[in-house]
């Protein structure tokens, strides 16, 4: 019987894989990454044939390591899959929330504007309308707007009414003192005038001038026919003795002036002349005056009420 040589024993020993290699193949197959048994055996024989066998000793076969599955072949946990299915829709729902869902001014979950509307509705009162109200006709032709001109006219009318009321009160007061009839009652009718070298009268104006005569009449009507005098240059026209200064003197003291004539008033002319209103008859006034046309004497005339630019009501 022939004894097998070293080469025969090596082929017989490695003709089939060992049980350890078979177990490694089975475990790799269970992990989804198993390789064919023939390929492992071929690789094992090729590896063993690379190195020559020395002195008939067969080197031990190293156990094959278990093949590890790659990242692509790893199985995902069911819990991870369920969490992903829940989290992804939640992200889309959160991004789709409306902007008005955030209401910092809300009260108990209700928006402030909505709460105010609900409160106004709850506090509203019921209105009962009569059944015949729907048949009433609305008249719009009686309404009108007041213009600026109408307002100004109304103010002017009120001013005229106030002036007329003051004039009526003044007339009543002067009548009580007894306005005298027409006539030259000037007490200094023969005193020298300024051009004659005369001086000032007790009233502060030059003798026999228009201003001195009218000042005398105002004192007379006020009940001061002799001194002490009530109305003088210093109390009526301290800014100047000329007739042109009288209207300004009345304005500075707030005394009444008007374009309506009144008995006992001063007829003021803008050509530096004043006269005394003796009577009023319709649109005509009778004037008493001194120094008309430079005569320095007593004079009367009747003129239209509109010919007098301004009437200075008696001071007081």
Automatic annotation (TrEMBL):
Region (Disordered): 1-37
Protein name: Surface antigen
Biased composition (Polar residues): 1-10
Transmembrane segments: 79-103
PROSITE patterns: CHAP (PS50911)
SUPFAM superfamilies cross-referenced by the UniProt entry: Cysteine proteinases (SSF54001)
Biased composition (Basic and acidic residues): 18-33
Keyword DNA repair annotated: no
Transmembrane listed as a keyword: yes
InterPro entries according to UniProt: CHAP_dom (IPR007921), Papain-like_cys_pep_sf (IPR038765)
Pfam families: CHAP
Peptidase C51 domain residues: 185-313
Keyword entries, A-Z: Membrane, Transmembrane, Transmembrane helix
Residue stretches in coiled coil: none
């Amino acid at each position: 019987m022939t004894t097998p040589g070293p080469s025969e024993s090596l082929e017989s020993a490695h003709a089939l894989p060992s049980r350890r290699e078979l177990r490694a193949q089975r475990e790799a197959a269970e992990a989804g990454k198993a390789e064919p048994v023939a390929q492992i055996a071929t690789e094992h024989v090729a590896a063993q044939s690379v190195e020559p066998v020395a002195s008939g000793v067969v080197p031990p076969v190293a156990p094959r390591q278990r093949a590890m599955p790659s990242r692509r072949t790893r199985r995902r946990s069911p819990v991870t899959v369920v969490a992903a299915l829940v989290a992804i829709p939640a992200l889309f729902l959160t991004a789709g929330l409306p902007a008005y869902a955030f209401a910092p001014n809300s009260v108990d979950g209700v928006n402030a504007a909505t709460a105010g509307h609900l409160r106004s509705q709850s506090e509203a009162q019921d209105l009962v309308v009569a059944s015949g109200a729907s048949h009433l006709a609305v008249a719009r032709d009686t309404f009108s707007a007041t213009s600026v001109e109408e307002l100004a006219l109304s103010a002017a009318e009120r001013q005229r009414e106030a002036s007329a009321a003051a004039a009526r009160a003044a007339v009543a007061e002067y009548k009580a003192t007894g306005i005298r009839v027409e006539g030259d009652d000037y007490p200094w009718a023969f005193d020298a005038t300024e051009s004659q070298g005369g001086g000032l009268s007790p009233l502060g104006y030059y003798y026999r001038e228009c201003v001195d005569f009218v000042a005398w009449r105002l004192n007379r009507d006020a009940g001061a026919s002799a001194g002490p005098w009530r109305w003088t240059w210093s109390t009526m026209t301290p800014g100047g003795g000329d007739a042109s200064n009288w209207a300004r003197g009345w304005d500075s003291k707030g005394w009444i002036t008007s374009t309506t004539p009144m008995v006992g008033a001063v007829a003021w002319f803008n050509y530096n002349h004043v006269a005394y209103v003796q009577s009023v008859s319709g649109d005509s006034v009778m004037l008493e005056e001194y120094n008309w046309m430079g005569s320095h004497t007593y004079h009367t005339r009747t003129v239209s009420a509109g010919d007098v630019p301004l009437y200075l009501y008696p001071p007081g």
